[in-house]
Design a protein that fits this description.
This protein is an all-alpha fold. The chain has helices spanning about 1-20, 30-50, 70-90, 100-120, 120-140, 145-175, 190-205, 215-220, 225-235, 235-250, 255, 260-280, 285-305, 310-340, 350-355, 355-370, 375-390, 395-425, 440-455; strands spanning about 50-55, 60-65. It has a two-stranded antiparallel ribbon with strand order 1-2. Strand 1 and strand 2 (about 60-65) form a beta hairpin. Helix 1 packs antiparallel against helix 4.
Length: about 475
């Protein structure tokens, strides 16, 4: 029974995705939403029941499926984001004859990501990681234009390169790649430290850390809004989960702390936080601005992980949750603006608050959370990141706090003008109200509720983290 429960949340969405591809007659929107919800239920059952599934490959390598609290946390974020994006997509893709392919590859990607959460060692994680990259590639390619093909190939190329770095690190790590998560290394050689650095940098490619972040601002503007939301909100978190597993469940943070690998990760993450914010501040395209914002905000997470302390890990996981909610919401809002207001640049959003008040109210909540203002969730995660960095005390950590403050100001600089111009266009501005249907607004309301509720009551979270 345990084995079935561990495989069910992986196979259920993936088989449904294949069925949508081979059976065009199915209603893709409703079917996908129901299957995504069933996957969430199956995922909860798998983690509540627990257990371990081991498949021997050779005498030294084996695949392991297991359930733990960290995996459950990421799986909950993934299931919530996919469900919101699919409900939204039923209206966004209405009348589009190709929409079943989007929903099909969404389900395939969700199944692969649940596999990441249930992976019990690096080898298993790597296999599902590659499968997720293959399944998500068509979502970038969806429009089929020359620009979309070029962006999809860049996304795929960066994914392959990052995965190759991970594979090199796994080969250097030897038996640690097959060791079950939680069996921490007792000592690290120079070779093992290089192995960890290669794995961490390889996974950071998906998480958008420099110098492997260039695919993000290229892929997001051409992908459909629900795909952009998933790419930024949760698919990037696969790289984050990979770094967490490597640092805290394989190589041992106590041993990695103080090594050159930690120093490299800290400085790269700090540089990415600042650079991403600066590029977002100067960008005029709405989705591209949000993409550069993701580059910056995701490196907040890597910065917290690179502190190699329990406080840094906890703060990074909070940032994972609140960034996922805010960035999924912002890209869904951007899609609504493009769909109903035909606004693709920041300058075209003048008065959008009067035309689309519900969507713009949600955009305002997401923006304030991303900036890090109380009482929204983003304030909680960023406060804890700064506290953890001060406690850690190294020079890169202290510099990181300064950069985080500068980045917060830059984030306000590139998001608040959108909000102010949207709500206050000036005298004489008139327009018709057109907010979209319930399928577009309900996911935004749900994401706002999470940000506000957990921002006001952060004490609900520590037991889960």
């Amino acid at each position: 029974m345990t084995n079935i429960l561990l495989w069910l949340p992986i196979l259920l969405p993936m088989l449904a995705g294949v069925l949508l591809i081979v059976r065009p007659g199915l209603r893709p929107g409703r079917t996908s939403c129901c299957l995504s919800l069933l996957t969430a239920v199956a995922t909860a059952a798998a983690f509540l029941h627990g257990g371990v599934q081991r498949i021997d490959i050779t005498g030294e390598f084996w695949l392991i499926l297991t359930a733990d609290r960290l995996g459950f946390f990421f799986a909950a974020v993934i299931c919530g984001a996919f469900l919101c994006a699919m409900v939204y997509a039923t209206e966004y893709f209405r009348g589009d004859g190709r929409r079943r392919l989007f929903f099909a590859f969404c389900l395939l990607t969700q199944g692969a990501m649940i596999g990441l959460c249930l992976s019990g060692n690096l080898l298993t994680f790597y296999l599902f990681y590659e499968l997720m990259s293959l399944a998500s590639f068509p979502m970038v390619l969806y429009d089929g234009t020359e620009e979309a093909r070029a962006a999809a190939m860049k996304y795929f190329g960066f994914s392959v390169f990052g995965a190759a770095l991970v594979l090199m690190g796994m080969m250097l790590s030897g038996p640690l790649a097959a060791a079950r998560f939680g069996d921490l290394a007792k000592e690290l050689s120079v070779r093992s430290i290089w192995a960890f650095l290669l794995i961490a940098v390889g996974f950071s490619c998906k998480a958008g850390m420099m110098p492997l972040s260039n695919w993000l601002p290229t892929a997001h503007p051409v992908a459909p809004a629900p795909a952009s939301a998933l790419l930024s909100g949760v698919i990037t978190k696969a790289g984050v989960l990979g770094i967490v597993r490597a640092a805290y469940f394989v190589f041992n943070p106590a041993l990695v702390s103080g090594t050159f690998a930690q120093t490299v990760l800290l400085w790269l993450s700090v540089a990415t936080v600042f650079t991403g914010s600066m590029l977002a501040y100067k960008e005029k395209g709405l989705k591209k601005r949000l993409a550069y914002s993701s580059v910056s905000q995701l490196s907040y997470v890597i910065f917290g992980l690179a502190l190699m302390t329990p406080e840094g890990l906890s703060a990074a996981l909070l940032q994972v949750l609140f960034h996922a909610c805010a960035k999924v919401g912002l890209f869904l809002c951007a899609g609504a603006y493009i769909h109903y207001a035909e606004a693709t640049t920041v300058d075209q959003l003048l008065g959008v608050g009067r035309r689309m008040p519900k969507v713009t109210a949600a955009f305002t909540v997401f923006a304030l959370s991303l900036i890090g203002l109380p009482p929204f969730g983003g304030f909680v995660s960023k406060w804890q990141l700064c506290t953890a960095a001060f406690a850690q005390g190294s020079v890169p950590a202290q510099m990181g706090v300064i950069v985080l403050m500068i980045s917060a100001l830059l984030t306000a600089g590139y998001l608040l003008p959108i909000v102010s111009r949207g709500w206050f266009p000036g005298h004489g501005f008139t327009c018709e109200v057109c907010d979209g249907g319930k399928a577009m607004t309900l996911p935004l309301l749900a994401l706002c509720a999470v940000i506000v509720l957990l921002g006001l009551l952060p004490g609900l979270l520590p037991a889960a983290l």
